[in-house]
Amino acid sequence: MDAAQSSNSVSVSYGVLLKATENWNGQTAGSHTIPNRRCGVECGCVRGRYVSESESSPIPVGVAEYALSTDEQPLRTSGVGSCVVVAIHDERAAVSGLLHFMLPTENENTTRAPPAKFADSGIDTLLEAFTAEGGHLSRTWSKLAGGAKMLEFDSFDRPIGDRNVDAARSLLEARGIPIRDADVGGTTGRMVTFLPGTGELVIKTASGDRRRY
C-alpha cells in the first residue's frame, strides 16, 4: 500500500486491489468494476472494501488504513495494540471516519508506506476525505482508542503507544477538533467499533472486557 489520489474517500470492498490512477466513477479498473464508490485507503495501490448502503455489518478498517461511513454503517478495526484509532463524526452531515495508524510521524517513514500508517499524514488524509464527503471540521468531534504498551522493552525513549496517543491529541487539537472520550493505554490489545448512529465507541479488549464511550 502506497500513496493514492487525495480525492479518494469513502468506504470500501473485499480484497479488491486497484491502481490509484483508475477512474472511480463506475469505470472498469483492471478486471474489476468499481460501483461508484471510493476507497478509503490512500496508497500507491488502493485496496477498497465496497459495502452497499443496505448492509448493516461493520465496515472493516485494517492497520494503516482509514474508511468513512456516510449511512450510519458501523466502522470496525481490530488488532489495536500500541497503534491508535481515531474516530471522527459530524452528526449534522451524517459523516463518520475511522483511522488506524501505527506511528506518530511520517518522518519515520523509511519505506514507501501509506499515509494512514502515521498520525500526522493519516489524520490529514482522513480529514481531507471527510470534508470531501460533506463533513465540517467546525462541527466535528473525535474519540480515541489504543496506545497500549505491548512490549516490555521498547526501542524508543518513551513507549510507542504513549507517543501515538500524544501525537493524536496534539494533531486534533491543532485542527480544532475536540476529543470527547478516549480509551487509551494499558497493556492489552483492543477491537474498536464506532457506531455513527449513536456516536458510541465500543471497545472489546483481548482480556474480554467491553466498554462503551
TrEMBL record:
One of its GO terms (molecular function) is protein-glutamine glutaminase activity. Pfam families: CheD. It catalyses: L-glutaminyl-[protein] + H2O = L-glutamyl-[protein] + NH4(+). Its EC number is 3.5.1.44. CDD domains: CheD. It is an enzyme of class 3 (hydrolase). SUPFAM superfamilies: CNF1/YfiH-like putative cysteine hydrolases (SSF64438). GO terms for biological process: chemotaxis. It comes from the Archaea. InterPro entries: CheD-like_sf, Chemorcpt_Glu_NH3ase_CheD, Cytotoxic_necrot_fac-like_cat. Keywords: Chemotaxis, Hydrolase. Belongs to the CheD family. HAMAP family: CheD. Probably deamidates glutamine residues to glutamate on methyl-accepting chemotaxis receptors (MCPs), playing an important role in chemotaxis. This is Probable chemoreceptor glutamine deamidase CheD. It comes from Salinadaptatus halalkaliphilus. The lineage of its organism: Archaea, Methanobacteriati, Methanobacteriota, Stenosarchaea group, Halobacteria. The gene is cheD.
